[in-house]
Design goal:
There is one protein chain. By secondary structure, this protein is of the alpha/beta class. The protein starts with a strand and ends with a helix. 27% of the residues lie in helices and 25% in strands. It has one domain: HUPs (Rossmann fold). A nine-stranded mixed beta sheet has the order 9-8-7-10-6-1-4-5-11, sandwiched between helices.
Length: 262
Amino acid sequence: MDLIVCVKQVPGTTNVEVDPVTGVLKRDGVAGKLNPYDLFALEAAFRIREKTGGTVRTLSMGPNQAVQSLRETLAMGADSAVLLSDRKFAGADVQATSYAIQSGIRAMGGFDLILCGKQTTDGDTAQVGAEVAEMLGIEHATNVSEISEITKDSITVTFSLDDVLQMQKMSLPCLITLEKDAFTPRLPSFRRMKAIKEEQITVLTAADLPGLEEKRCGLKGSPTQVEKIFPPEKNSDKETFRGTSDELSETLYGLLKAKKFI
């Protein structure tokens, strides 16, 4: 079975800068890590491969430093990896990101199942997986918490609809996004990390993707724009009040009222 896992490198720190012109995060040079939700998708793919055989390929979009996260997926057990890296992809919103990723998947050739993390910690939209499936014209299920059965033709999963759980059987090829804690992710292997070969990671630019419409990529291909984004201000000021419970209650009420919270 040919499995593709979409992963993303996210900032490994909350201390990031924002481009004042475009309103997007400055990712170049920022320490990154593999998106935590993607670890559950990777583990699901490895377990499926153990049952059915086949290959696990990982795909990411980002600057060249995202190769580090792809190397981690190889150390965990992926067979090969592809990085979509081009300045033309920079500043993409959900739609432009989904378009570039589905173009990369098409360039990778056939597949049976695509797995994604439920969402990313730097965006939290939880929309890319579903949009990629729609653009590829395949069935999909999101918030998957359990994979009940998988055959060469279909997969049966359980997913959350807020207050209920639903079981669904889908024909392959299809796409699923994994909920956190669906599986316990395995750790990268130092032995596999040392054995990684350069040819296991392929870097593709916009020019390498057949049929790609550049006007649908990056900032210019994004119908939604971030008006303003900024890190929260840090304030260490504090004031201590002492007194009886009644006195402290009155003081707290006065402060809340003065700040117009009540």
